[in-house]
Amino acid sequence: MDAPNAFLGKPDPPTEDEIAAVLGPVAPLWSRLIEEVTTEAGKVTQEWKGIYVNKYGWSLRLKRKGRNLVYMAPCNGCFKVAILLNDKAVNAAKATRLPKKVANALATAPHYPEGTGVRLNVYDDSDLPPIRKLAQIKLAH
Fold first, then answer.
1. Which of 28, 75, 86, 97 could share a disulfide with 3, CB 3.0–4.6 Å?
2. Does a structural domain hold residue 111?
3. What is the pLDDT of residues 8-27, one digit of tens each?
């Protein structure tokens, strides 16, 4: 079952306290992913987007030099991560050893003109390494 965005209909971007409250025990993973992407990518900016907040809620975009690297959406007790990969990055990711659920997500990900959109949910610590790997692949391509 897909977890809905925790901030559907909220008129303003969520605060750090609101994010921590809805994420609960996975809040440290949210912070760790931001820190790790920032460390790997260098100077990263954070941008909250709330396009059609009544339907989609709010998402945090981690960007480097105007390029979206990772999209993160807070849910109750988990968070969603989306990474848009170009064709070279998809091929590199497919050649990498990834957990089965991540490989399946990559294989079934929708393809857009901008690239292939891989979406994953983070429930515990074991979900972060493959997301970091996909972010590294995106940075390399």
1. 75
2. yes
3. 999 999 999 999 999 999 99
Pairwise CA distance, residues 59 & 48, whole Å: 6
- The pTM (predicted TM-score) of the whole model is 0.94
Can you tell me the distance from the alpha carbon of 59 to that of 78, in angstroms, rounded to the nearest whole number? 13
Let me know: does 42 contact 64? Beta carbons within 8 Å: yes
Evaluate whether residue 10 is within a structural domain. no
> At 94, which amino acid appears?
K
Q: What would the pLDDT profile of 114-140 be if each residue is shown by its tens digit?
A: 999 999 999 999 999 999 999 999 999
Distance CA 6, CA 121 (A): 14
- Residue 66 has which token pair? 């105007």
Give the CATH number for residue 117. 3.90.1150
> Per the structure, how many domains does the chain have?
1
**Which one, of 65, 66, 77, 67, lies nearest residue 22 by Cα?**
77
Tokens 């991540």 belong to residue = 102
